[in-house]
Write a structure and sequence with these properties.
Blueprint: E1 5-9, H1 13-17, H2 36-43, H3 45-52, H4 65-97, E2 100-105, E3 108-113, E4 122-126, E5 134-140, E6 150-154, E7 165-168, H5 171-174, H6 180-184, E8 189-193, E9 204-208, E10 211-215, E11 220-221, E12 226-228, E13 232-239, H7 245-248, H8 259-292, H9 294-297, H10 309-324, H11 331-349, E14 363-364, E15 376-381, E16 393-399, E17 402-404, H12 411-415, H13 437-444, H14 448-459, E18 464-469, E19 472-476, H15 480-491, E20 494-500, E21 503-508, E22 511-521, E23 529-535, E24 541-547, H16 549-553, H17 561-576, E25 580-588, H18 591-605, H19 611-622, E26 627-635, H20 642-651, E27 655-659, H21 664-673, E28 683-687, H22 692-706, E29 738-742, H23 744-750, H24 756-764, E30 768-771, H25 776-789, E31 793-798, H26 804-809, E32 812-816, H27 823-826, E33 830-832, H28 837-875, H29 888-898, H30 900-909, H31 915-920, H32 926-929, H33 936-962, H34 975-997, H35 1003-1023, H36 1026-1031, H37 1041-1045, H38 1049-1075, H39 1082-1089, E34 1097-1103, E35 1108-1120, E36 1128-1134, E37 1140-1143
Parallel strand pairs: 15-27, 15-31, 27-30, 28-29, 29-30, 31-32, 32-33
Antiparallel strand pairs: 1-8, 2-3, 2-4, 4-13, 5-11, 5-13, 6-7, 6-12, 8-9, 9-10, 14-33, 16-17, 16-26, 18-19, 20-21, 21-22, 22-23, 23-24, 24-25, 25-26, 34-35, 35-36, 35-37
Helix pairs in contact: 3-4, 4-29, 8-10, 11-28, 11-30, 14-15, 17-21, 18-19, 20-28, 22-24, 28-30, 28-33, 28-34, 30-35, 33-34, 33-38, 34-38
GO molecular function: ATP binding; ATP hydrolysis activity; ATPase-coupled intramembrane lipid transporter activity; magnesium ion binding
Enzyme class: translocase
Pfam families: Cation_ATPase (PF13246), PhoLip_ATPase_C (PF16212), PhoLip_ATPase_N (PF16209)
Length: about 1150
């Protein structure tokens, strides 16, 4: 039965058990000792379903071990992986469930396991201890800064933030303290929301002693958090085990599949259809043969009773399904997982992606998306903390129409400017620097507006202060912005000292003041502002508010119009310098008005329905007719290497969109600073319309400027087979580079269903896009829009909780482990510490992974198709009897032993160019975006090549041994000799093909290739020996065949001829490409110029219609630079003899 609301009573287990709430035990494991085998086999039912029909004697012409050995290997490897994962989950569950916590039972505190805690229990938590359940904060100790009933939590597991969150108890329960007898006698009842996964809200009421008290998110401790700055805390258990918000958020994430996976699924279906076609052709052939030749053959092998030609063809169909099913071997998927795992380790082990300052390595948090990293077309990035350092410093401000901090500028100017002396303030932070002495003078002159400005900064926040020694303050802020503003107020004489749930202590110019904290109207992504209502020591009621300037301006009194215009100019100047801005305002409150508002606020806070809407209406009422004080400007510097990274990614034809909550001017300035926007661009369009019609017209005007005469309607790409339902919008080429900047309110209209395609068309024609003032939801909507209507791979990168939505929506999510905590990291597929590592992740690891996977798939299909097609041709010469052309042992070991390690070696170690060349020529990344290395056309070419090779491998040996004789005159044209010759030719041919595919030879690769051939001959001569035949004659019938066959010179000539003929088309094709100047082989480059590549420069151009990349070699020459520097300057000229070099599509 669906639970709509939760009722519980403190200290009454019998009452609470009647509701059958979940216990606090958690279970994330899938199996136990008894269910592992049946459940795991059921999950792998597709694997053994492909094999089990092969053991039916009537239709199988293969021995049991050809089925059991591959099946056992596949099932064992998968089961071992699943068992290991589940054992780790069991260990984690046991560790968590058996943790100890003190529970109040029968008037005494008892140590109980976490799993035994029940809803309605009162538990005791201590400092630095994990929160056992989702509990309501009941009472707290005096913390290290002497704040009664007040503390902080460090959300380690659930919120995944490294900054502290303030949580406080209700005064009515806080007064109970740690008196066990009072706590045991408490019988309050809680009515709250049902279990859900919303981390940002909670609604409930506490009924006690005839009164109702509101419960919200600020009074709830969530399971997985850690208690800090408080010696102890009592809490009432509201949710346990699987009903806690932590476990509610541990649901299955959407499984991400790569484009290669989706293509493979389509190809596998096509292959199954082709398999059915081949088997049907051979079954028809068997029927015709039985009607014709079969009647005479029955003299040698009589038919069984009831087996006519039709029934024989039916059995033949299924027999050939068994023999030819190697076109889709189940080992393909196992091999793919091994390759992905290996390439994931390369990312984890890459020292060049390790950030030593924070001791943070790169981490591949998934192993299924590596090759997708080589196909990224769109990158969606947050700004703060992703492109910037998220280390805030108070830089400038505007107070009552006057700006301060004008002398702040580049580092060179700061070095020649005397910093402000804060020695007058004994509580100043020595690390804080400021360069405008006028602001300190204004503070000392006690200008009222300046004092009010800093008083607001000292009061309107949720920062926690810790003072271990007298005068040594340490601030813990929920965001770096708040910490920077409170620190600035501290240095200018308004020192935030401490706080309690109902008061804030501030030292104002050396005078201790305690303000009574009446209410906090907290910040969220919708409100975009924060307010506090305080009573001064003199009894004056005031509301202080800070937030985004657009939000504050809407709530100002009309008398502030002139000041607002001046402040707006200052804000634009600050934003133009790339500074983050906030507007500050205040309001004095009437006592009677506030009392009435407070009463209505209490009624709304305990309302069972529409509580949030009612509270928001009250917030709007009191946050009106504000008086403007000024604005702040905070500097957030770019991370190292960001401009270079964006420039490299742009050269790789990757389009970068920045989605930020900052002002337009700030975002534009950062865009120019990080090379996202440039002065060389033809134009940068700004979309700022306030109505749908204005936005649509601005988008069309921009599109017309970029491409005059562009059609009004979108051009759609042809629908894909088994593709997504929405039609993809085709890319539109433009002449020149353009940028697009769009505001949040305009973006809201642009994302409407009626306009989203217009917006997408215009944005995709631009080289760079910046979306300003966007919400987390809008970030996800933008990413989803591109995913829906573009055939392109998207990547989202961010560092904070507000980036989680777009990280989960994108094909690839990347988390930056920075100042905002690790929630983005925990939701991501890949993580590292700095944005600059993104270029190595994509241009090196991504491109290599994509290239290796494509080579693996092409070669894997080639070797298995070739192996299988030989059976098909042989069927026409064996009466369609489903006899195999190879020895059964060879069939068993072909994919498992003889060809497994060489292809894995290529897939793990191959490189077409090294990492330095990947950075030097980022345009080499483009083929991955276009799916040039593996596509339906590439698969079709692979199948044609396999068909040709199989014809050579069957008919050349067939003709060679048909009339051949040994040196002693004996005949070699027997089935066993033909089987040995054919399988040996096959193995040599596919091995040579592998050598042609491999670009980068290592000792390991060489060992795998040579070792596989050595293994083949060792196994063959051993299994065909006299000794094994004497031990078990029925299992080893090929006695002496290898020795007799491979000792003949004509056999080796046949092997050589078939191998050469199989690789001849590939060698000829590549020779023609090189001769026509369409090859990017480093060897061709080096030989064609007679110089090493390191001394040359390559221009890379992309020609869409010809579908290949053209590289032109240029010779670097130097000339003496003009001027007195005496240095040299590189001058490039085209090399006369070097043709265009390209990669064919």
């Amino acid at each position: 039965m669906l639970e709509l609301e939760r009722k519980l009573r403190a200290n009454d287990r019998e009452y609470n058990l009647s509701f059958k709430y979940a216990t606090n035990a958690i279970k994330t494991s899938k199996y136990n000792f008894f269910t592992f085998l049946p459940l795991n086999l059921f999950e792998q039912r597709f694997s053994y379903a492909c094999f089990l029909h092969q053991v039916i004697p009537e239709i199988s012409s293969l021995s049991w071990f050809t089925t059991v050995v591959p099946l056992a290997l596949v099932l064992s490897v998968t089961a071992a992986k699943d068992a290991t994962d589940d054992i780790n989950r069991h260990r984690s569950d046991n560790q968590v469930n058996n943790r100890k916590v003190q529970v109040l039972i029968d008037g005494k505190l008892r140590s109980e396991k976490w799993m035994d805690v029940q809803v309605g229990d009162i538990i005791k938590l201590e400092n630095n201890q994990f929160v056992t359940v989702s509990a309501r904060s009941w009472s707290r100790s005096r913390s290290t800064t002497h704040r009664p009933h007040f503390g902080q939590t460090f959300p380690l597991l659930l919120l995944s933030e490294t900054n502290l969150k303030v949580r406080q108890a209700l005064p009515v329960t806080g007064d109970l303290g740690d008196d066990v007898s009072k706590l045991a006698g408490f019988n309050g009842e809680v009515l709250c929301e049902a279990p859900n996964n919303r981390l940002d809200r909670f609604a409930g009421t506490l009924a006690y002693a005839g009164q109702k008290y509101a419960l919200d998110n600020e009074k709830i401790l969530l399971r997985g958090c850690t208690l800090r700055n408080t010696e102890w805390c009592f809490g009432l258990v509201l949710f346990g085990g699987p009903e806690t918000k932590l476990m509610q958020n541990c649901g299955k994430s959407a499984f991400k599949r790569t484009s290669v996976d989706r293509l493979m699924n389509v190809l596998v279906l096509c292959i199954f259809g082709f398999l059915a076609l081949m088997c049907t052709i051979l079954a028809i052939g068997n029927y015709c043969w039985e009607l014709g030749e079969g009647s005479a053959f029955t003299l040698f092998l009589p038919r069984q009773n009831g087996h006519d030609a039709a029934f024989s063809s039916f059995l033949t169909f299924w027999s050939y399904v068994i023999i030819l099913n190697t076109v889709v071997p189940i080992s393909l998927y196992v091999s793919v997982e091994f390759i992905r795992l290996g390439n994931s380790f390369y990312i984890d082990w890459d020292r060049k992606m390790y950030h030593s300052r924070s001791d943070t390595p790169a981490e591949a948090r998934t192993t299924t998306l590596n090759e997708e990293l080589g196909q990224i077309k769109y990158v969606f990035s947050d700004k703060t903390g992703t492109l910037t350092q998220n280390i805030m410093t108070f830089n400038k401000c505007s107070i009552n129409g006057k700006t301060y901090g004008e002398e702040t500028g580049p580092a060179e100017r700061k070095q020649h400017t005397e910093t402000v002396d804060f020695s007058f303030n004994p509580l100043a932070d020595p690390r804080f620097t400021f360069h405008d002495h006028a602001l300190v003078e204004a503070v000392k002159l006690e200008i009222p507006e300046v004092h009010a400005f800093f008083r607001l900064l000292a009061l309107c926040h949720t920062v926690m202060a810790e003072e271990k020694k007298e005068g040594q303050l340490s601030y813990q802020a929920q965001s770096p912005d708040e910490g920077a503003l409170v620190t600035a107020a501290r240095n200018f004489g308004f020192v935030f000292r401490s706080r309690t749930p109902d008061s804030v202590s501030v030292v104002e110019m050396g005078r201790q003041c305690t303000y009574k904290l009446l209410d906090i109207l907290d910040f969220n992504n919708v409100r975009k502002r924060m307010s506090v209502i305080v009573r001064s020591p003199e009894g004056k009621l005031s509301l202080f508010c800070k937030g985004a300037d657009t939000i504050i301006y809407e709530r100002l009194h009309r008398s502030c119009a002139k000041l607002m215009d001046v402040t707006t100019e200052h804000l634009n100047e600050f934003a133009g310098e790339g500074l983050r801005t906030l507007a500050l305002a205040y309001k004095d409150l009437d006592e009677d008005f506030f009392l009435g508002w407070q009463r209505r606020h209490h009624e709304a806070s305990v309302a069972p329905h529409q509580r949030e809407a009612k509270l928001e209406q009250l917030y709007e009422e009191i946050e009106s007719d504000l008086l403007l004080l000024g604005a702040t400007a905070i500097e957030d510097k770019l991370q190292d290497g960001v401009p270079q990274t964006i420039e490299q990614l742009s050269k790789a034809d990757i389009k970068i969109w920045v989605l930020t909550g900052d002002k337009q001017e700030t975002a534009e300035n950062i865009g120019y600073s990080c090379n996202l926007l440039s002065e060389e661009m033809n134009d940068v369009f700004v979309i700022g319309g306030n109505s749908p019609d204005d936005v649509r017209q601005e988008l069309r005007n921009a599109r017309g400027s970029m491409k005059p005469g562009a059609a009004e309607d979108c051009a759609f790409l042809p629908a894909r087979i088994l593709g997504k339902s929405a039609q993809a919008i085709a890319d539109e080429a433009v002449n020149g580079d353009f940028g697009l900047v769009i505001n949040g309110h305009s973006l809201a209209h642009a994302l409407d269903r009626s306009m989203e395609q217009d917006f997408l068309r215009t944005a995709c024609m631009c080289k760079a896009v910046i979306c300003c003032r966007v919400t987390p939801l809008q970030k996800a909507q933008v990413v989803q829009l591109v995913k829906t209507y573009k055939r392109a791979v998207t990547l989202a990168i961010g560092d904070g909780a507000n980036d989680v939505s777009m990280i989960k929506v994108a094909h690839i999510g990347v988390g930056i482990s920075g100042q905002e905590g690790t929630q983005a990291v925990l939701s991501s597929d890949y993580s590292f510490a700095q944005f600059r590592f993104l270029q190595r992740l994509l241009l090196v690891h991504g491109r290599w992974s994509y290239l290796r996977m494509c080579k693996f798939l092409r070669y894997f299909f080639y070797k298995n198709f070739t192996f299988t097609f030989v059976h098909f041709w042989y069927a026409f010469f064996c009466g369609f009897s489903a006899q195999t052309v190879y020895d059964e042992l060879f069939i068993t070991l072909y994919n498992l032993v003889y060809t497994a390690l060489p292809v894995l070696g290529m897939s793990l170690f191959d490189q077409d160019v090294n990492d330095a060349w990947s950075f030097q020529h980022p345009q080499l990344y483009v083929p991955g975006q276009l799916n040039l290395y593996f596509s339906k056309m590439a698969f079709f070419k692979c199948a044609l090549h396999s068909c040709y090779s199989s014809l050579v491998l069957f008919f050349i040996p067939y003709a060679a041994v048909g009339q051949a004789a040994r040196a002693d005159g004996r005949d070699v044209a027997d089935y066993q000799s033909f089987a040995v010759l054919t399988q040996t030719c096959l193995l040599f041919a596919v091995t040579l093909q592998l050598g042609l595919e491999m670009s980068y030879w290592t000792a390991v690769n060489g060992l795998f290739v040579v070792g596989s051939l050595v293994m083949y001959f060792a196994v063959t001569f051993t299994m065909y020996s006299n000794g094994l035949f004497l031990v078990l004659p029925s299992a080893f019938p090929f006695i002496g065949t290898a020795r007799n066959t491979l000792s003949q010179p004509n056999i080796w000539l046949t092997i050589g001829l078939t191998s050469i003929l199989c690789i001849l088309p590939v060698v000829s094709y590549r020779f023609l490409l090189a001769w026509m100047g369409l090859s990017i082989s480093p060897t061709v480059l080096e030989r064609g110029t007679g110089r090493r590549l390191s001394s040359c420069v390559v221009d890379v151009d992309f020609l869409p219609r010809r579908r290949f990349i053209v590289l032109r070699l240029r010779e670097p020459t130097t000339e003496r630079a003009s001027g007195g520097g005496g240095g040299t300057r590189s001058k490039l000229k085209p090399h006369e003899a070097s043709p265009g070099l390209g990669l064919p599509g």
